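sry for the spam today, last one i promise. struct tokens for design, 702 residues
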């Protein structure tokens, strides 16, 4: 069940929250039961499979397995995102996004209708090391699935309109990632550990995605999609003879020799522990990613490292989870991982903690790494880790899809099948001495990369002096310490630049009109009065804001938001620098509360962010932080607005020259298109990652 967003109070985002979420039942309770005793461990019996290589070099593996009348076919092509040029990072991913959206004989709609008509699926994706084109269907409809797989692989046409649609979706996804501190931390960790010359260290940016042309997608397909070196794995309750014959018919004439992949560059050497501080204004928690390079996929220490990882942070019974969550209460979860890509992987610990314990978390994470090196693992912990890994492994080999996934990983990485068949045996053979040996060999807390995503105003002081620090913003751009420390200064907004007027908007869901909104701004003596009325079948919202006509000092907020029987109402006044009043909330959000707390210098009331941007000095690359009162949870939130370009857009109200502004830090990231002339009236608003937008229809005066 979903619940109302706890922070959906902004005039810009509240109605979207109503559209996207609902209200769940109250009073649900969990039933506690005693787990059954463990079953006796059974040996791994890997099913037989057929492997043939066609004359064109296509490697075909057929796995007749399973009890359900379903099949899957996965075509793996070596290269993946590792083939992306540095200035076109995201090329492989964008190529696969469009690969299934049109061929020489079928449109995107016809492809979708064909596979959905038989209850199947058809997808393409790009990982670090491989492109994957996959299909699933009932066995009775296998021919349809395999024909579509062949068609998109050999005959994709990359229609221009589909390329642009995929580009917009990719750009929206990239902006949405900026609102996810865990994703920001992972991107920075990869860039630091692998280096930006290594393909694993790079990540798509709006600039690299915008630069990709349709011709480059076609060229990438022609370069990467070849029969030679490709692996086609078909699994399910299938007849091997029939499958092989059909594959030879469909793919036998596919030409192309195995291409030589470029060698991976060596990641940079690390000679000391270093903190990489990503300043994220308004963060109420600190995200940590701590670690360094690991091992190659075929390293003989792999199994001992798996046991070590399970002990460190491989589950809810591991040290990190038990210490940081259960004993200290700093976090909801703390984990570790050892990755296994085609090139060298990483060893990493991950957690998100209360900002006020950032220093203690830093110390504890490094201590737990060091503890593996210096202390012999107690027998009880060792047995628990081995039993879990060995005992749960057969559960990963129950369905045809699971067996195919394990088989594909080993075949693609050039690993022996024995690694699968003898996995439990090799795990149980790991000793306490092995765990300590591999920890001393492969774990180096004195050379760790410590990535921290947090608000520097809250966490930086705790971490300074513990290790050298480099600073970045959430987009990965380097910052100086002065830029980070000075970023928290409140912005002075000039309210005299506003002008009276009325604006109407249409609200769209998936390009279909869903509702309307009307905004007015009027002068009342020394005050501005801003009103907003939003109506749609999903709910309604009415807001009245009053603030100083000179310096934006908030005066009052009255807001009603309703969705069916659910209602939120806020009646707030600013008196002597304090926000006082009543906030009525449904039980799901904690019930009614009385607010009486300092407003804080430069802090605005919800809904004033658009008005502040209307008077801002907008220019290419300009950025602002806007502090907004959180009337539900108290305190304030920090929104970041960044000008990312200038664009002429057409809406029902006309054609306008606009600044494109990305707004993050709220309930969901937004893209705002603001009139290039001041005051910068909102022309269009898009909800990143959601098919919702607000378009201007009337502006008076124009």
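last one done:
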């Amino acid at each position: 069940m979903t619940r109302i967003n706890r922070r959906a109070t902004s005039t810009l985002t509240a109605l979207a929250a109503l559209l996207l979420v609902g209200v769940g039942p109250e009073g649900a309770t969990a039933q506690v039961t005693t787990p059954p005793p463990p079953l006796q461990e059974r040996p791994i019996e890997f099913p037989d499979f057929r492997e043939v290589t066609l004359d064109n070099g296509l490697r075909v593996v057929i796995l007749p397995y399973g009890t359900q009348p379903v099949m899957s076919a996965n075509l793996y092509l070596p290269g993946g995102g590792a083939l992306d040029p540095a200035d076109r990072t995201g090329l492989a991913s964008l190529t696969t996004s469009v690969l299934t959206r049109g061929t020489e004989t079928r449109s995107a709609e016809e492809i979708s209708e064909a596979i959905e008509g038989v209850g199947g699926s058809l997808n393409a994706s790009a990982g670090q090391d491989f492109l994957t084109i996959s299909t699933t269907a009932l066995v009775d409809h296998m021919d349809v699935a395999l024909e579509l797989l062949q068609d998109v692989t050999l005959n994709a046409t990359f229609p221009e309109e589909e390329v642009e649609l995929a580009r917009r979706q990719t750009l929206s996804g990239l902006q949405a990632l900026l609102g996810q501190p865990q994703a920001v931390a992972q991107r920075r960790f990869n860039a630091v550990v692998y280096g930006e010359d290594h393909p694993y260290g790079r990540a798509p940016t709006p600039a690299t995605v915008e630069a990709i042309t349709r011709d480059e997608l076609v060229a990438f397909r022609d370069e990467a999609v070849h029969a030679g070196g490709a692996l086609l794995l078909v699994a399910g309750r299938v007849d091997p003879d029939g499958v092989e014959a059909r594959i030879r018919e469909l793919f036998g004439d596919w030409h192309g020799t195995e291409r030589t992949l470029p060698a991976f560059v060596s990641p940079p050497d690390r000679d000391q522990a270093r903190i990489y501080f990503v300043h994220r204004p308004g963060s109420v928690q600190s995200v940590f990613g701590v670690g360094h390079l690991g091992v190659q996929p075929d390293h003989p220490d792999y199994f001992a490292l798996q046991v070590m990882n399970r002990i460190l942070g491989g589950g809810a019974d591991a040290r990190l989870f038990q210490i940081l969550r259960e004993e200290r209460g700093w976090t909801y979860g703390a984990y570790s991982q050892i990755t296994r890509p085609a090139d060298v992987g990483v060893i990493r610990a991950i957690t998100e903690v209360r900002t006020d314990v950032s220093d203690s978390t830093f110390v504890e994470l490094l201590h737990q790494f060091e503890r593996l090196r210096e202390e012999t693992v107690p027998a009880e912990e060792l047995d628990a880790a081995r039993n879990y890994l060995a005992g749960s492994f057969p559960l990963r080999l129950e369905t045809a899809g699971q067996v195919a996934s394990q088989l594909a990983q080993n075949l693609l990485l050039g690993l022996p099948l024995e690694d699968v068949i003898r996995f439990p045996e090799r795990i149980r053979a790991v000793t306490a001495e092995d765990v300590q040996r591999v920890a001393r060999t492969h774990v180096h807390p004195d050379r760790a990369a410590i990535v921290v995503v947090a608000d520097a105003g809250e966490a930086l002081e705790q971490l300074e002096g513990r290790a050298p620090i480099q600073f970045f913003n959430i987009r990965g751009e380097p910052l100086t310490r002065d830029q980070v420390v000075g970023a928290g200064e409140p912005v002075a907004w000039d309210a005299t630049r506003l002008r009276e007027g009325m604006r109407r908007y249409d609200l769209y869901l998936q390009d279909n009109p869903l509702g309307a909104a009307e905004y007015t701004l009027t002068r009342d003596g020394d005050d501005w009065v801003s009103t907003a009325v939003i109506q749609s079948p999903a709910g309604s919202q009415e807001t009245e804001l009053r603030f100083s006509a000179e310096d934006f000092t908030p005066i009052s907020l009255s807001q009603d938001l309703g969705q069916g029987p659910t209602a939120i109402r806020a009646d707030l006044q600013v008196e002597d620098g304090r926000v006082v009043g009543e906030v009525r909330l449904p039980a799901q959000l904690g019930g009614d509360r009385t607010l009486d707390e300092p407003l804080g210098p430069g802090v605005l009331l919800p809904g004033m962010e658009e008005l502040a941007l209307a008077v801002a000095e907008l220019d290419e690359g300009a950025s602002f932080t806007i502090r907004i009162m959180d009337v539900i949870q108290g305190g304030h939130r920090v929104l970041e607005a960044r000008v990312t370009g200038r664009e002429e857009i057409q809406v029902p109200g006309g054609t306008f020259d606009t600044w494109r502004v990305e707004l993050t830090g709220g309930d969901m990231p937004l893209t705002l298109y603001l009139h290039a002339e001041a005051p910068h009236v909102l022309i269009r608003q898009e909800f990143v990652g959601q098919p919702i937008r607000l378009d201007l229809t009337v502006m008076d005066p124009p």
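The first helix runs from residue 14 to 20. ok im logging off now
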